Amino acid sequence: MALTNKKQNKRSNALVLAEAVIVAYVAYMANFLVVNVVGAEMPSISKLAANISLITIFVLVSSLSVGLYEAKLRETFRGIIRRIFVSLAITYFAVEVLTSTFFLELRMHPYYLPTAAGLIILSLVLFRYFTNRLGLLGLGRTRLVVIGAGERASIIEKRMRRDVDRLGFELLGFIPIPGDNREDGIRNEKLIHVKVDENFRNFIIDNDIEEIVIACDQRRGTLPIEVLFDCRLRGVEITDLLDFMERETGQIVVNLMYPSWVVYSNGFQSQNYLRDALEYSLNCFLGLFVLFFTWPFMLLTAMIIYFDDGRRTGTSVFYKQERVGLNGKLFKIVKFRSMRPDAEKDGAKWASKNDDRVTRIGHFIRKYRIDELPQLWNVFKGEMAFIGPRPERPQFVEQLIREIPYYNQRHNVKPGLAGWAQLNYPYGASVEDSMEKLKFDLYYVKHQSLMLDILILIRTVEVVLFGKGR
């Protein structure tokens, strides 16, 4: 384990050094901005150097105190951002007190410290994002091995085939154990034939393994608990397959879920009380903001639909349809009509990719999500949110609840105009597709937060601007 600890220390030291350089440079640039933009007097070199040194030292010390340089830090990116904010808050307070109480000669322009703090937060957030995402400095890439090579373990092989899917970890291989369903198991990945017994610890040490993923088909009587317990005491992470897939893919593998995992997870109800309290106000504000910029397009769309076939058939340019909302409550969704008036003369049908019921203008407004804009009315009425699982028709919901486990949990939040599932699995036209989308919907329900909502909004704008909608 000494080699592993040495490697982890090198990573931490490289991170401290890199962030020290970033903080010092950004603190210098903050003075440059204050002098040239605000018109402040240029401080002496010694005064500027002292302030840069103070800021750099306090940022590093406070970052260390909040665990940002912990070698085994297992934190979400949102958690890292929170820690960076806390670190800079401590730094701001400490430098402000020192320069206004004990070292008055080091006092800078009033705009300098807030400018430096803001730019440092932005710089460190971006730096941490790219180092974790790309595995720079050896960060964010965990050496791991999977115990199990059967049907459950094969989900990693099937869902994470590309290199881009494995940026966050280095997979050494899969260890087959008794009870695995090898017929439906690993096909093309590396198999490691090693016994998970008392000597397994030596294999972990020799290969610098930092995490073990449990993905065996049969746990009872096959998992050596004492050996895994010993590995955990020595600092190796032990992760269940469901938690691993949730962390790395942003989805919950519904077909592999088991009751005890649900019981011990953090549940599917929001614990963000401030966000819940402000939800309607935030949605209304966003709705008014979007309406301010899109009403001309909405008016033009209504006119085109009317002259395309509305005037001839006497059919409304809008389409109202019953959908299932929060806690299973039904409501009428409003959209621009993109299908022929007789689209459902034979009853409710799943939409298909090249649906011949879609009108000429319908193809265009669907591609750029213009048909969804009238749902702003549902947002103002409190029936929908901006972000959430897309609402489904009650006829289909009844079928899906019967055929897909945990499907009803997606109704724990308000349906939305845009959702995590639409970004990651944009097309759904069958029960199988609904199963795939549910994996992302449940991830959103479980992890809903303001930061995740902002991420979805930003990526949805990309979808609209570049016509990636379906």
From TrEMBL:
Subcellular location as annotated: Membrane
UniProt entry tagged with the keyword Transferase: yes
Leader peptide range in chain numbering: none
Gene3D superfamilies, A to Z: NAD(P)-binding Rossmann-like Domain
Residues annotated as domain Bacterial sugar transferase: 283-465
Keyword terms, alphabetized: Membrane, Transferase, Transmembrane, Transmembrane helix
Protein name (database record): TIGR03013 family PEP-CTERM/XrtA system glycosyltransferase
Species of the source: Fluctibacter halophilus
